[in-house]
Amino acid sequence: MSTLADLHFDNRFAALGDTFSSKVLPAPLHNPRLVVCSEDALRLLDLDPAEARDPLFIELFSGHKLWSSAEPRAMIYSGHQFGAYNPQLGDGRGLLLGEAVNQAGEHWDLHLKGAGSTPYSRMGDGRAVLRSSIREFLASEALHALGIPSSRALCVTVGDNPVYREREERGAMLLRLARSHIRFGHFEYFYYTRKHNELRQLLDFTLDTCYPDCRNQPEPELAMFRSVLQRTAEMIAHWQAWGFCHGVMNTDNMSILGITFDFGPYAFLDAFDARHVCNHSDHEGRYAFHRQPMIAQWNLACLAQALTPFIAVDTLKAELAQFMPTFEQHYLTLMRRRLGWGDARPEDVEQLDALLQLMQTSGADYHLTLRKLAEDNPLVRDQFIDRSAFDNWYREHQRRCQASPAARQAANPLYVLRNYLAQNAIAAAEQDDFDEVRRLHHILRRPFEPQPGADAYAATPPDWGRHLEISCSS
User: Fold this and answer.
1) Can you tell me the distance from the alpha carbon of 348 to that of 341, in angstroms, rounded to the nearest whole number?
2) Nearest-CA neighbor of 169 among 201, 139, 125?
3) Radius of gyration of the chain (CA)
4) Which among 31, 84, 130, 401 is most buried, taking Cβ atoms within 10 Å?
5) SS percent in the chain: helix, strand, coil, step 5
6) Quick one: CA dihedral 326, 332, 334, 340, positive or negative?
7) Is 352 helix (H, G, I), strand (E, B) or coil?
8) What is the pLDDT of residues 78-136, one digit of tens each?
């Protein structure tokens, strides 16, 4: 294990120069305190968990100090937001502090969100608020524990800075980790500004740092796009299988690595609703749960357009046509595992759709239904209004089911990050009580196994927690 002072930086993206990002120093929080820290994320940097108790830890992750080899940069990119192209976005409230290299030789971006205004803040204050920082921290680590590809979150700090959104809130910072922060929108920016030399430079950088194996292929650029498509399809399959709604699937929020990040008004489904919209700003339901796969394909088409200077259009179209089959294959594999069905059979799609339709009609809780099925719990029947129809489905399920209850339970979480649980933790944290944030984080680290005294965290939401509205504001 290393100390904070031992961190070694190799700032490859910063070396691309001012065309790709701007130098900015973080604006520190006043009177910063540590809200929560992930020991698992610390280990990615070879850091001892005891480092979180060092006063230097708070100073570094609240903007008061920097490593001498760090080189904070605000990235520039563009993107399609709710289907409309926005020509310049960029890191309006976040900074890439640098790329830390661990003992295994892995590069990890240290990205500080809520670090103050940048050239891309568009008249904003560049701050993040405590509630959104807690939500992203909990979601990042919970998604990872479920096996969903995601960025990671190292810590949240809070200060006394007033931040004004719908109401006055407190400023906070989140330290996010990812192997890269390059987005689809990076490529769109240089494509639409007709800076094709810089686009080539970005493409080469991404190949070298994110997809080096593609360099050995006859057409490296095409191999990279194919890999991005496959990773994105697998990520979306995980979202759908675990009932996760991202909320803001703009192209600037799509990672070139196929990992989940920059989610704001996310939600895990409670009662199953294929048309659930978790972002109250999404008035048209563009990013409804059931639309996420097709939106991902649409976003990949935007990335493909930006790569047309280097890959033939017909070739890109042929690759895009593979997205839905790839997604469906991954999704069915995950759902078969959750249901314990074993090998693929032609009737699986129809049988799975029948279960989801029964859940939709009954308002059955998505997670508890699947967990009770995994446990062979007879109370699962009580989730359904039409019990005769469920009985017919269940008989087929029993004939199909091959995995043991233990194996099925290992694929069906008992604890998920429901919105009401996050809200309880946020409400306490806003009163300077961080115990609930830390307890919830601890429980979500092991979502599949029962934990002593944690029964309340596996329950369906109370009435007040069933229809919480979450906004993009941060």
Assistant:
1) 9
2) 125
3) 22
4) 130
5) 45, 15, 40
6) negative
7) helix
8) 999 999 999 989 999 999 999 999 999 999 999 999 999 999 998 889 999 999 999 99
Opening angle at CA 46, ends 152 and 143, nearest 5: 20
What pLDDT is recorded for position 472?
Answer: 60
What does the buried/exposed string (b/e) look like for 249-284 if buried means 16 or more CB atoms within 10 Å of the residue's CB? bbbbbbbbbbbbbbbbbbbbbbbbbeebbbbebbee
Comparing 152 with 342, the larger pLDDT belongs to 152
pLDDT value at position 465?
Answer: 85
Q: Report pLDDT digits (tens) over 422-438.
A: 999 999 999 999 999 99
Q: How far is CA 133 from CA 69, 237, 312, 434, in A?
A: 26, 26, 41, 13
**Residues facing 75 on adjacent strands:** 21
Query: Per the residue annotation, which of 46, 91, 109, 252 is the catalytic one?
Result: 252
Residues contacting 8, CB < 8 A, separation 6+: 69, 100, 101
- What does the pLDDT look like over 249-288, one tens digit per residue? 999 999 999 999 998 799 999 999 999 999 988 889 999 9
β-pairing verdict for 107-113 and 168-178: antiparallel
Does the predicted TM-score (pTM) go above 0.85? yes
Q: CA-CA distance, 130 to 279, in Å (whole number)?
A: 18
State how far the Cα of 316 lies from the Cα of 307, in Å rounded to an integer.
9
Residue 144 pLDDT greater than 60, yes or no: yes
Token pair of 384 as six digits: 């359904």
- Separation between Cα atoms, residue 244 and residue 328, nearest integer Å: 16
Three-state secondary structure call for residue 474: coil
State yes or no: is 91 an active-site residue: no
Structure tokens at 434: 């961080």
Question: How far, in Å, CA of 396 to CA of 95, rounded?
Answer: 53
Helix axes of 387-400 and 348-362: crossing angle, nearest 10 degrees: 150
Give the C-alpha distances (Å, rounded to integers) separating 138 from 11, 141, 232, 438. 27, 6, 22, 9
